[in-house]
Amino acid sequence: MAQTTASAIDVHTWSTPNGWKIPIMLEECGLPYRVVPVNIGKGEQMAPDFLAISPNNKIPAIVDPDGPGGAPISVFESGAILQYLGRKTGSLYPTDERARVAVDEWLFWQVGGFGPMLGQAHHFRIYAKEKIPYAVERYTEETKRLYGVLDRRLHGREYLAGDYSIADIATLTWAKFHDKQGVDVATYSNVARWLELLLARPAVQRGLAAI
């Protein structure tokens, strides 16, 4: 539903695992939005205008012209944005406290561990100018451990925390690139099944194509 309207949410983002989370969420919620590309390869995340809405110079960040009380609001950090959009729309983020705690646990597991460790595996396996065997082994093995955690959680479950939620969206965009992380997802059958299920969702496909 990427479009240009006065009420559209501006999504400052780029084509990275964190960057795709928000277009997917907005597609799932049916909210109008505009993608504002922030080319991190060219250092555009360091521009003063972007710093004003994302103090840590990281994508994604949003500006919602229809924030709380009808006033604009900017939000940075992908987990915080997902929670904000879930509260705003009542979608993919339960209001029941026990159910919300379960979603928050797995959301924070992703933003605090699954994403950063997989990101380090990406870096040292593919992008580092110098191949450091210790770093490659350290982060690849930790990545595999985390996939094991994810696989056990998905045993007997369709989604991470009850119904499909922001926790699934946050984790999906990283797990999609398992091959770059040195992971054969076929060895994690529950993860493989979950990935196939989520990637078949039309809103997920539209969100991935939005950047």
Automatic annotation (TrEMBL):
Source species, domain of life: Bacteria
SUPFAM superfamilies: GST C-terminal domain-like, Thioredoxin-like
CDD domains linked to this entry: GST_C_YfcG_like, GST_N_Ure2p_like
Entry-linked Gene3D superfamilies: 1.20.1050.10, Glutaredoxin
Domain GST N-terminal per the UniProt entry, residue ranges: 6-93
Coiled-coil annotated residue ranges, if any: none
Residue ranges of domain GST C-terminal in the record: 96-211
InterPro entries linked: Glutathione-S-Trfase_C-like, Glutathione-S-Trfase_C_sf, Glutathione_S-Trfase, Glutathione_S-Trfase_N, GST_C, Thioredoxin-like_sf
One of the Pfam families matching this protein, by short name: GST_N_2
Xref: PANTHER family: DISULFIDE-BOND OXIDOREDUCTASE YFCG, GLUTATHIONE S-TRANSFERASE-RELATED
Name of the protein described by the UniProt record: Thiol:disulfide oxidoreductase
